[in-house]
């Protein structure tokens, strides 16, 4: 009799212990991966925030510096309160030298000046609200027209066809007709032409730019304007015009025999735990 052997094939699966071990290992790997991704994400966010702060600081500082460097001498004034600080100045549109200057009360106040051209060679043409400013020793001389350091320009003519814009003058001297004469003559015979003032105001953690006509009293803007930067954390003093508190955003330092006057700007940009402090001295002309 032959014996019959039956072959039985068995299939092995995962045990419960093995499954639990795999789940634990996957959990550990998942947690580590998540921490790595989160760390990389946090670094990216921090770099982005820091870059945004830096771009904000660079833009407003560069724009402010360029405009302020072209200001009429002694036209800077600072005003405000504990909620808003504003610095105002008058940008120079044109400048030249005069050969003759009418005095206050002259019946036909006309100035002979060296003709003016811009960088592209275009001759000066009278613009709306143009004013001639001569020998301003203080901000009031620039803004208060009653002090007769600033006069409205009514026309510009030459000895060609009578129109300054055609640039056909034969001797390089043109005539400006003004509303009245001037109280004093400049030792350097300088004349500045301007028609507006610019203000930079810090309020509610932001910097705004305002432009307006020349007014005797400074305006402190509590709304409106062109947004220039956000995220500032400067603490503002109650009287910025006479303050020496270093945290104030704008301070003026007068000229001496050894150096020009300058404006010190101090912007403190904050975002979360990030801070960027911008302190810069902007020199302004002191030759009126």
TrEMBL record:
InterPro entries: N_methyl_site. Residues 158-168 have a biased composition (Acidic residues). Residues 149-168 are annotated as: Disordered. The chain crosses the membrane at residues 12-32. Keywords: Membrane, Transmembrane, Transmembrane helix. NCBIfam families: IV_pilin_GFxxxE. This is Type II secretion system protein J. It comes from Agaribacter flavus.
